[in-house]
Amino acid sequence: MDKFTYQYPVRQHFGKGCAESAIKEEMKQVGKNVLLAYGGGSLKRTGLYETLMDWLHECGKNVVDFGGILPNPTYDKVQEGAQLVRKYGIDFILAVGGGSVIDCCKIVSAQARLGEDIWDMQYTRHQFPTEFVPMGAVVTASGTGAEQNNGAVITHTAKKLKQPLVGAYHSFAILDSDLTKTLPMKQVVSGAFDTLSHCMETYMGRPQGDNLADEINEAVMRNVIKNLRALIANPDDDFARGELMWDSALAENSLLKLGKQTDFQCHMLEHAVGAYTDCNHGQGLAVIHPTLYRHLLSEGKEKLARMAERVWNVKGNTTEQTAALGIDALESFIREIGLPTRWSEMGITDETVLRAAADTCLLMPGCCKQFTRDELFEVLKEKL
């Protein structure tokens, strides 16, 4: 394993029914003016908005609304949030939702304390923010693990780019599986596949030899597969719901990445497609993963074969055959859980969009193969 220095910065409150006591405990320790950030309206439809407002008022907080954060959060929405923070003297940001809300707030937290544009700071001057508005997260849609780290993915609509930015870590994260029960199953499935993708992308990164991080990763991947099947079969399975929530956290809290370079070429490619199409993240990953891994068979067969045996429980007569059977098992699982395997199933039929995505996506050095843009275009085009 490579050298590392490790700190687990985010305080976790995990468990069914833990939200009320945990939120009240945490909010009593923060400043008076709170920005309540949330998504497109489900928070109010389910009654959780009123409940949260009651809890915050009990803690003596002045609450400023920051709603309407949609999937694939935008640079413009970040600027809107930063303006609210400055205008109302916000002391603390409470992000309530899934990865999109949480990612948006991480960058709001940083932008509000900057005297310059955060996109230019990171992509032109290659510098990163060091001061942030304190924040916490209440997770209502698991899968991204966004509450566990300081990375975010933001869409810059004017630039036609969807790329990572560095923002704030949360002071705490509330992981109460009861809060995910109103989420449609298709979103649960998409989120769980994002978790599986995080695991696979970390697993396929260098170094390729046996190491503890990868062995833990294999257990998390098996757990995602088992519990997603269980939850689809019985949406009232609270145990499976909680397991998937913790799987999501483990996949992105750096534990599986210790000593690893990681890969994440599938993610960067999906982000690029999303910048042009606003497609669902988990669905896009489901289309990309099997095809990209088939393009890795020559260079990555040893690791793909190990994943095939230890995660998918399949074995062929040769290493390459075992690797291929594992990719087939992954694609079969994608079909089993109802995710798309072709772009046309997502309404994406324009080859020029895929060409543009391949030409603008970030190229990742941690993969066992360094893809060219033409190769990435072939990966995308094969699934039209």
TrEMBL record:
GO CC annotation terms, alphabetical: cytosol
Listed SUPFAM superfamilies: Dehydroquinate synthase-like
Keywords in alphabetical order: Oxidoreductase
GO molecular function (one): butanol dehydrogenase (NAD+) activity
InterPro entries linked to this entry: ADH_Fe/GldA, ADH_Fe_C, ADH_Fe_CS, BDH-like
Domain called Fe-containing alcohol dehydrogenase-like C-terminal: residue spans: 189-382
Gene3D superfamilies attached to this UniProt entry: 3.40.50.1970, Dehydroquinate synthase-like - alpha domain
Keyword DNA repair: no
Alcohol dehydrogenase iron-type/glycerol dehydrogenase GldA domain sequence ranges: 9-176
Family of the protein in this entry: Belongs to the iron-containing alcohol dehydrogenase family.
Protein name, as recorded: Iron-containing alcohol dehydrogenase
